[in-house]
Write a structure and sequence with these properties.
The complex is a heterodimer of chains A (about 70) and B (about 140). With about 70 residues, chain A is an alpha+beta fold. Helices cover about 20% and strands about 40% of the residues of chain A. Chain B has about 140 residues and is an alpha+beta fold. The chains are: A alpha+beta (about 70), B alpha+beta (about 140).
Chain lengths: ~70, ~140
């Protein structure tokens, strides 16, 4: 089963990245996530635990990029 | 699924010309899926229910009660109320509003976002209350 990096969007959700966790280059995955984070401020959460994670591993099948929230 | 070489949401990231089996592929993979307003609402509600379960939040009225340490928050569309928590000079706020600058995100996903972030860092409540209009990342850092 492929792993997915998703984010909430106006279309409900958007799949940002899909890869085979057994064969994917996880350094590349994390590099892309870091670039996305730098650009958008979104940070990765493991959808199996609901916890913010620093790095995505092969064990995570679904990661949600959570965008910043502004106070009002 | 290979999407092709293009600039996508990530701006600077350029996909490879050919798919490589051990490399990730970026793109709007569900671009062509049917996303009627009803489907979008159903998807958003589905994610909210998953996040509610993950954070052990409980439905209450038009929102959800979230327990984080000594704090209890009532999270609803665009508003968070601190029902119970430490009250000191720096946390005199009982309610604040919040928004996700991502235009058009369904309210169910905005609530899910707030639940995840507060569960991860309950001090965000005071940061949202004090810093009107400023965006905070899940780790509490200001995002400009």
């Amino acid at each position: 089963m492929n792993a997915k990096i998703i984010t909430f969007s106006s279309r409900g959700d958007t799949t940002l990245l899909e890869y085979d966790p057994e064969t994917a280059d996880m350094d590349e995955v994390n590099k892309l996530i870091s670039e996305y984070e730098a650009r958008t401020g979104a940070q990765p959460f493991d959808m199996a635990t609901g916890e913010c994670i620093e790095k995505v591993t092969r064990e995570q099948n679904e990661v949600l990029m959570v965008h910043p929230v502004a106070g009002g | 699924m290979f999407v092709g070489s293009q600039r996508l949401l990530f701006g600077e990231i350029i996909l490879p010309q050919r798919p490589q089996h051990n490399r990730p592929v970026w793109g709007f993979l569900n671009y062509f899926e049917n996303n009627s307003p009803e489907n979008v609402r159903n998807q958003a509600r589905s994610y909210l229910l998953r996040v509610v379960a993950l954070t052990n939040a409980k439905k209450m009225g038009d929102g959800y009660l979230l327990n984080v340490g000594t704090n209890t928050f009532h999270v609803r569309d665009r508003y968070v109320r601190r029902v119970r928590g430490v009250k000191d000079a720096n946390s005199r706020y009982e309610e604040t509003c919040f928004f996700v600058p991502n235009q058009g995100m369904p309210s169910a996903e905005q609530i899910a976002t707030a639940l995840l972030m507060l569960k991860n860092d309950p001090t965000l409540f005071d940061k949202w209350a004090v810093k009107n209009g400023e965006s905070f990342k899940a780790d509490g850092q200001i995002f400009n």
